[in-house]
Amino acid sequence: MPQEISREELRRLVADETAQLVEVLPASEYREDHLPGALNLPLRRLESDAREVLTPARPVIVYCWDTA
Amino acid sequence: MGFTRVYDYVAGKLDWLAAGLPTEGTNAMRPRAADLARKDVPTGRPDEHLEDVRARVGAAGWDACVVVNEARVVLGLLRAAQLQGDPAARLEAVMRPGPSTFRPFVSIEEMARFMIEHTLESSPITTSDGRLVGLLRRDDAVRAAHRGQERGGGGGDQ
Fold first, then answer.
1. CA distance A36 to chain B (A)
2. Measured between beta carbons, which residues in chain A are less than 8 angstroms from residue B5?
3. Domains in chain A: how many in total?
4. Is it the case that residue B155 has pLDDT exceeding 60?
5. What ipTM is given for this predicted complex?
6. I need a surface site. Which of A10, A24, A37, B25 has the fewest CB within 10 A?
7. Domain tally, chain B
8. What is the DSSP annotation of B76-138?
9. What is the span of the domain harbouring residue A34?
10. Residue B127: which CATH number?
11. Is the Cβ of B27 closer than 8 Å to some Cβ of chain A?
């Protein structure tokens, strides 16, 4: 299970540990707005594509629109 | 899959946008409420006396003041009418409490439309935890939205 983190923890992980940001929303929503540097891996592609585009040795932070 | 450190930013993109933090994407180039909100709007504490605040607001060339607590959380709003009240009154007694506030990421077109429909001359822009970002004036929002429509890009050029 991924560990839940706050905005402040996200910023620290990105700044200090070059964490990889992954937006799991559809591509259309990603194109409109995404966190700086985030990649787009919609949920249905997450399992199949994660190994191709992400570096396992670095932390990975996933996010969607909100807690819902 | 070999990923040992996986985190979930549960509050998500909504939380990021509501904090007024920068984003990338097509919307990032369009003006939003936070871009046009006036950051220099005068503020006052609820226990201040109106005569002191009125002098400060007037000297700064404003006719509005946002009442905030020590954490800059918005408590109320003083517009021109409230600023003309009893000089000895405390702000908490004359302010309009709990004004409608908007998040920094709302598009300027949406803000202009809402402010016209609801005859709002200005609206505080706040983060998700209620902290003041600035005061958006309707004239500023309408002007920027109009410029955006003229350019056909759906946004202004601020």
1. 5
2. 58-60
3. 1
4. no
5. 0.94
6. A37
7. 1
8. EEE-HHHHTS-TTSBHHHHSEES---B-TTSBHHHHHHHHHHTT-SEEEEE-TT-BEEEEEEH
9. 7-63
10. 3.10.580.10
11. yes
Q: Is residue B7 a part of any domain in this protein? A: no
Residue A2 lies in a domain: no
Set of chain B residues whose Cβ sits within 8 Å of the Cβ of A66: 11-15
What DSSP character marks residue A54? S
* Domain presence at residue B128: yes
Q: How confident is the model at residue A44 (pLDDT cuts 50, 70, 90)?
A: confident
* Residue A1 is assigned to a structural domain of this protein: no
How far away is chain A from the Cα of B99, in angstroms, using its nearest Cα? 25
Tell me what pLDDT residue A68 has: 61
Rounded CA-CA distance A42/A54 in Å is 14
The residue of chain B nearest to residue A51, with distances taken between CA atoms, is B1
How many of the other CB atoms lie within 10 Å of CB of B103?
A: 18
Residue B93 lies in a domain: yes
Q: What angle do CA B84, B89, B94 make, to 5 degrees?
A: 60
pLDDT, averaged across chain A? 92
Calpha distance A68→B13 (Å, rounded): 12
Q: Residue B78: pLDDT above 90?
A: yes
pLDDT band at B2, cuts 50/70/90?
confident
